Amino acid sequence: MTNFDDPIERLIEYFRSLPGVGYKTAQRYAFSIIEGSRERAENFANAITEVKDKICLCSKCGNYTDKPLCDICQERDLKTVCVVKQPKDIIAMEKIKNFSGTYHVLFGTLSPLEGRGPNDIKIRELLKRVQEDKVKEVIMATDPDVEGDATALYIAKLLRPMGVKVTRLAQGISMGSNLEYADEATLSRAMEDRREIDD
């Protein structure tokens, strides 16, 4: 591995810290910045700073936004809530063009092995929303793995006494896969074929 001058190595290491970026790719990114114009480099740096300065979490659903309430929560049907693990899962679910409901981000799933219980994710906030917005259906769109299923079942048990219909995406999505990588057709079918969660 070639040793570059410190500023170049530092830039390469920052690119390497991004998910899925290896040394060779980080090196190409670094040289693209070096060989590009100063204006392009400054615009790139400003875009990163602006995101850190302006992007926050929607006060209702937890999605990334530059406003107190995201556009989805302002414009969509509040009676249907699709529950996801992380904000990036909203991007995946938005591939379904005909979904008119809103979202709720849990910021994790239940995982006793990792010491993550109900108080460590946004379940309390979901229950509050269900009451305040008189939600009729909660769609559990956590990943189809052991933790995602356990979280869906736990939330269903909490919501059922409140008279809320709780459904789960159909298993068109492979067990153990991540929602963010599912294609539009698979997600659409999974949403259409969702089923009510049983005990």
Tags for this model:
199 residues; alpha/beta; Helicase, Ruva Protein, domain 3; Dna Topoisomerase Vi A Subunit, Chain: A, domain 2; 2 domains; five-stranded mixed β-sheet; two-stranded antiparallel sheet; 8 helices; 7 strands; elongated
Q: Number of DSSP helices?
A: 8
Q: State Rg.
A: 20 Å
SS class = alpha/beta
Helical coverage, percent range: 40-55%
Strand order of the largest sheet: 4-3-5-6-7
Count of distinct structural domains:
2
Outline the low-pLDDT stretches: none
| SSE string, helices as H and strands as E | HHHEEHEHEHEHEHE
Number of E strands: 7
Percentage of residues in DSSP E strands: 5-15%
- The geometry reads as elongated
Question: Quick one: biggest sheet?
Answer: 5 strands, mixed
Distance between the termini: 56 Å
Overall pLDDT, averaged? 89
Briefly note the CATH topology name of the largest domain: Dna Topoisomerase Vi A Subunit, Chain: A, domain 2
Tell me, what is the CATH class of the largest domain?
Answer: Alpha Beta
Named at the architecture level, the CATH assignment of the largest domain is 3-Layer(aba) Sandwich
Q: What's the oligomerization state?
A: single chain
How would you summarize what this structure contains?
With 199 residues, this protein is α/β, with parallel strands linked by helices.
Protein described:
The protein has 199 residues and is α/β, with parallel strands linked by helices. The chain folds into 2 domains: 6-54, RecR Domain 1 (Helicase, Ruva Protein, domain 3, Orthogonal Bundle), CATH 1.10.8; 69-196, Dna Topoisomerase Vi A Subunit, Chain: A, domain 2 (3-Layer(aba) Sandwich). Helix content is 43%, strand content 14%. It is built from 8 helices and 7 strands, in the order H-H-H-E-E-H-E-H-E-H-E-H-E-H-E. Strands 4-3-5-6-7 form a 5-stranded mixed β-sheet. A two-stranded antiparallel ribbon has the order 1-2. Strand 3, helix 5 (87-93) and strand 4 form a beta-alpha-beta unit. Helix 1 crosses helix 2 (23-35).
